[in-house]
């Protein structure tokens, strides 16, 4: 099918794809129908291929109305010729790819409603219309006019502002009601009483109305009866609410009464004794017996003596009633005893102390069952609020007293003259005094108002008794502490805390650097940031309380006197890192022990500035050490990896007991011997204080052997 216009030009639409020269000029879809036949007029093909140079509006560009052409085949303006050609399609033609291109048509506007800013009924509507007309005329006259110049302008967008609104949090509360059998009974009885009162009210109304009819009275009597019933109901409800309020107030008074609190306290003590009875008996070195029910019960002293007489021949009872004398006797034959060991009795921990670092521990000097534990981080980056808890053997699951502090606690100690006073040193340099007799969580005295307070962490403090001197005699107690600001101070406890400097720890080493050899020029002195050396620990001599040792961050240990604050009596050099603890031997007072961050522990003699022995078992920082109060050979150490017990009478190369069962992810930070029992306490960085019992550790009966051994080894 071919289409010609009035001038005879061929305007037939091009095919959808270029024809194959070998296939002739046939069309892919050829129509064999006659154009003149009514109802059979069709176009053989219609292409929108861009190569044909035609688009969807071909009819309008050539002046031909395609709709008229299709509906009026006999039009005189268009000549159409129909050629019948047979199209032969091969498999290649069928498999060939056909490209169809779709283009966007013109937009058809169905409705256009321009925006209106000013209402037509407004007063200035006419003026706005005139301005709009002038603007339209100016836009029309803009083209070709030299009076208009195109210029660009940049408009800055307004800065956005974010606004937040703060509101109170929605408080939610869960409430529950417990229904008991008597509550159900009271509710049932109340419903029965209400139903009975309603029935009596109806009966009274019926009787009144019948009497009114008989006596020809007015119905005002029934109204009076109704008001009487309503007042009766009101009185019943008021009485019921009053009784409930009285019961609630009575129950609240019972719960808040001092008698109930005391009874609950005694009940708690009884339960704790029942739960921890075997452990407490082992702690106090009492035999544990089993009764008929299988539960453990302690033996009294009289029963223990009788039982020892009756079962003196049995081997088990002999092992249970062993005493220190027997242990010292058996120490001569070590092959017959079991090796020393530790047994876990219990741990002091609760939700308050979970995750807190145990920084220091101290026993009460009058009540040996009361333990004070300080919680605070050693590192500046891990600082948070500190805790001071007083634990009792009668309740290992919750502390008896809890004192909240604004900063981490680094040291604490109980007073001997006033056992209820607990001194606390903190990381920011402040010192507080707490009264354990009161249930208050705040301190009794604080050093925040003192103008001479410490400016760095208080690493150790101690209550010390000294002779008053003079004719009066007696002893006085002093509170001393050492701080990282290089000062050793004495605190005066009056209406407020105030301190005086006992010693300013000077740095040493600058004088050594200034020494010159012969023929060498004199060197300039190096400027120091601070002339004071940070103090880390101190300990006073057990016999002469005017002599004390001070360990510094430089690794030096100074022997000082409280009578001479201007200079040191001597300096011991042996550590290469900060000294964390120094401790005099309580039984052999010429020896003292020190530990440091250089992984070592060193035994010193006060008359020799060279170390006697250096102990290093594992490459780990030694956080704390303590001598045993019963043996001059035994001391304990708290390392980051484990706790150790050394017996110098057995070996000086390795500890006799090791305990490496720390909390997951934690390390041991402090160690403390129990004063009256064979037990050891280990604190870690996760807030746990483990109470461990020492087994098969010999205790010498006298310390005369110590003096002979150490005096002979001192020159070495």
From TrEMBL:
The UniProt keyword set, sorted, is:
Cell projection, Cilium, Cytoplasm, Cytoskeleton, Flagellum, Repeat, WD repeat
Q: Where are the WD repeats?
A: 572-604
InterPro entries, A to Z? Dynein_IC (IPR050687), WD40/YVTN_repeat-like_dom_sf (IPR015943), WD40_repeat_dom_sf (IPR036322), WD40_rpt (IPR001680)
Task: Please tell me whether the keyword Repeat is annotated for this protein.
Answer: yes
Gene Ontology BP annotations: cilium movement
Q: Where in the cell is it found?
A: Cytoplasm, Cytoskeleton, Flagellum axoneme; Dynein axonemal particle
**In which residue ranges is the amino acid composition biased (Basic and acidic residues)?**
1-10
Q: Which domain of life is it from?
A: Eukaryota
Molecular function in Gene Ontology: dynein heavy chain binding; dynein light chain binding
Compositional bias (Acidic residues) spans? 302-318
- Asked if the keyword ATP-binding belongs to this entry, the reply reads no
Query: Which region ranges are annotated with the description Disordered?
Result: 1-24, 199-228, 292-333
- Major localization class: cytoplasm
Q: Which SMART domains match?
A: WD40
Record field: compositional bias (Polar residues): 218-228
An example of a Gene Ontology cellular component annotation for this protein is: dynein axonemal particle
- Protein's recorded name: Dynein axonemal intermediate chain 4
The root-end lineage is: Eukaryota, Metazoa, Chordata, Craniata, Vertebrata
């Amino acid at each position: 099918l071919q289409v010609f216009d009035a001038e005879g030009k061929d305007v037939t639409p091009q095919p959808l794809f270029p024809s194959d020269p070998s296939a002739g000029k046939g069309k892919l879809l050829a129509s064999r129908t006659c154009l003149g036949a009514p109802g059979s007029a069709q176009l053989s093909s219609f292409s929108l291929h861009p190569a044909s140079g035609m688009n969807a509006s071909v009819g309008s560009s050539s002046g031909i109305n395609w709709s008229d052409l299709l509906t009026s085949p006999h039009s005189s303006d268009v000549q159409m010729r129909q050629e019948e050609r047979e199209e032969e399609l091969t498999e290649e033609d069928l498999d060939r790819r056909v490209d169809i291109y779709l283009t966007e048509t013109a937009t058809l506007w169905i409705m256009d409603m321009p925006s209106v800013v000013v209402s037509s009924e407004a007063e200035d509507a006419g003026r706005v219309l005139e301005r709009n007309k002038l603007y339209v005329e100016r836009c029309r006259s803009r083209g070709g006019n030299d009076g208009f110049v195109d210029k660009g302008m940049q408009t800055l967008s307004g800065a956005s502002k974010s606004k937040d609104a703060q509101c109170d949090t929605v408080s939610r509360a869960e409430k529950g009601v417990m229904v008991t059998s008597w509550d159900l009974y009271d509710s049932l009885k109340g419903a029965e009483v209400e139903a009975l009162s309603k029935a009596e009210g109806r009966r009274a109304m019926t009787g009144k109305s019948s009497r009114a009819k008989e006596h020809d009275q007015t119905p005002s009597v029934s109204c009076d009866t109704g008001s009487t019933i309503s007042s009766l109901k009101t009185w019943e409800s008021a009485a019921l609410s009053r009784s409930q309020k009285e019961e609630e107030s009575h129950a609240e008074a019972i719960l808040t009464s001092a008698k109930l609190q005391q009874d609950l306290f005694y009940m708690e003590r009884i339960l704790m004794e029942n739960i921890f009875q075997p452990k407490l008996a082992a702690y106090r070195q009492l035999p544990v017996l089993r009764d008929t029910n299988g539960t453990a019960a302690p033996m009294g002293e009289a029963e223990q003596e009788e039982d020892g007489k009756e079962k003196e021949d049995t081997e088990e009872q002999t092992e249970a009633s062993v005493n220190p004398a027997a242990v010292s006797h058996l120490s001569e034959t070590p092959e017959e005893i079991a090796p020393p060991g530790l047994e876990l009795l219990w741990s002091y921990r609760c939700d308050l102390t979970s995750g807190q670092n145990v920084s220091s521990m101290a026993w009460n000097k009058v009540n040996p069952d009361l333990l004070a534990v300080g919680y605070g981080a050693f590192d500046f980056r891990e600082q948070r609020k500190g805790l001071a808890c007083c634990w009792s053997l009668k309740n290992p699951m919750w502390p008896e007293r809890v004192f909240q502090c604004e900063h981490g606690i680094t040291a604490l100690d109980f007073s001997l003259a006033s056992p209820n006073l607990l001194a606390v040193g903190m990381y920011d340099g402040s010192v507080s005094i707490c009264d354990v007799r009161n249930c208050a969580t705040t301190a009794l005295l604080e050093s925040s108002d003192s103008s001479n307070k410490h400016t760095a962490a208080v690493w150790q403090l101690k209550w010390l008794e000294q002779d008053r001197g003079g004719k009066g005699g007696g002893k006085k107690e002093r509170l001393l502490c050492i701080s990282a600001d290089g000062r050793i101070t004495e605190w005066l406890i009056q209406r407020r805390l105030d301190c005086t400097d006992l010693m300013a720890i000077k740095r040493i080493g600058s004088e050594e650097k200034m020494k010159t050899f012969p023929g060498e020029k004199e060197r300039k002195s190096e400027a120091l940031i601070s002339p004071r050396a940070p103090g880390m620990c101190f300990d006073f001599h057990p016999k002469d309380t005017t002599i004390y040792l001070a360990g510094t961050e430089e690794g030096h240990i100074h022997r000082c006197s409280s009578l001479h604050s201007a200079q040191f009596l001597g300096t011991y050099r042996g550590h290469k890192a900060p000294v964390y603890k120094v401790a005099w031997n309580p039984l052999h007072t010429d020896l003292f022990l020190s530990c440091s961050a250089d992984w070592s522990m060193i035994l010193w003699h006060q008359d020799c500035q060279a170390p006697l022995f250096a102990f290093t078992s594992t490459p780990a920082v030694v956080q704390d050490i303590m001598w045993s109060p019963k043996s001059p050979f035994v001391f304990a150490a708290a390392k980051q990896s484990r706790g150790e017990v050394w017996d110098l009478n057995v070996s000086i190369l390795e500890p006799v007991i090791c305990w490496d069962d720390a909390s997951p992810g934690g390390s041991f930070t402090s160690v403390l011997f129990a004063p009256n029992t064979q037990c050891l306490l280990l604190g870690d960085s996760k807030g746990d204080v483990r109470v461990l019992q020492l087994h098969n550790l010999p205790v010498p009966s006298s310390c005369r052997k110590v003096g002979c051994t150490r005096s002979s080894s001192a020159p070495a």
